[in-house]
Amino acid sequence: MSHPLLGVEELVAGFGATTVLHGLSYEVNRGEIAGIFGLNGAGKSVSMKVLAGVVPVRSGRITFDGVDITRMSAEERVAKGMAHVPQGRQVFAALTVEQNLRLGAYTLRRRDSRRYQAVLDGVYDRFPLLRERRTQVAGTMSGGQQASLAVARALMAEPLLMLVDEPSAGLAPLVVRELFATLREVAASGVTMVLVEQNVAFGLQLATTAHILQVGRIVHSGAVADLDQAAVASYLGVGRLLGAGVTSTIEARKPAKKAAPRKRAPRKAVAK
Ligand SMILES: Nc1ncnc2c1ncn2[C@@H]1O[C@H](COP(=O)(O)OP(=O)(O)OP(=O)(O)O)[C@@H](O)[C@H]1O
Ligand SMILES: [Mg+2]
Predict the structure, then answer these.
(1) Coil, strand, or helix at residue 168?
(2) What is the pLDDT of residues 98-117, one digit of tens each?
(3) Does some domain include residue 165?
(4) pTM of the entire structure?
(5) 128, 134 Cβ separation under 8 angstroms
(6) Ligand 2 mean position to 44 CA, how many Å?
C-alpha cells in the first residue's frame, strides 16, 4: 500500500466572494496523528469541514484510502470511515449520553444491531465514565466529559480516520492531559488522526507530524521530532512566551540520542 490514507491536493474553498483555502496540500499516512497548526482564522476548521464534506470544494482533490472522495457526501464519507469531531464539540445537549452515542452509529444500528451493541460496549470500555453516566443529559456534563463524549460518538462509527478540531479548547491542563491520553490510545488502536490545535504546545505532545497553515496554505510540514522550533514559532508568530513551551515539547519528543563524544566543534549559535 503505497498511497497515503488521506491525500489533500491543491484544495480551494471559500464562501461567496471570500476564498479561505488557497491551494491546501498535505498527506496523512496510516497511523499518524497529523497536527494542523495555525492562527485564528487561518482556515483550520474550514479545512476540516471540507474533508468531512460539510463545506464544498471549489477545486482540488481529496483522496481517502486511494479513492477520490472530493464530490462525496458527508454521509458517504462517514460510511467510508471518516469521522469528524467538530470545534466546540457540539454534543446534543438535550439528549442523554447514550442517545448521543447512538446518533454516532445510526446507520450501523439499523443495519446490524448486534454489531452496534459490540461497538457501544467497546466505546464504554474505553470511556467507563460514559457508561456510568449513560442516562445523564449531555448538556449537564462538564466540558471535559462532553469532550470525551464527542470523541466517543465519533468512535461509534468505527472510523479509520478521525478529524478532531480543537479538543483542548476551554479545558484545564489536567483534563487536556487525560483527554490526550485517551486520544493517544485511540490512535494506537489503529485510528489515524488529523488534529487541529490552537494550543501548539499541547498539540505537539500528541501529533506525530505537523503541518502549519497560514492563510489557507500549508507553509511547513514535517515530523514533530524534526521540527525546527524557531521556524514553528516564527510561522505562528507565537513569540518567546509560547515559543518556550514549544521548544521543550519538541525537545521532549525527540528520540533520545546516545551521548557520543563530540568529534566536531559545536556549530555556532546563529546571531540574532
Ligand atoms: N460559514 C462561513 N461563511 C463565511 N465565512 C466563513 C464561514 N466559516 C468560516 N469562515 C471564514 O473562514 C476563515 C477561516 O475560518 P476557520 O473557522 O477555518 O478558522 P480557524 O483557523 O479554525 O480559526 P480558529 O482558531 O479561530 O478556530 C475566517 O475568516 C472565517 O471568518
Ligand atoms: Mg477553528
Answers:
(1) coil
(2) 999 999 887 666 677 788 89
(3) yes
(4) 0.87
(5) no
(6) 5
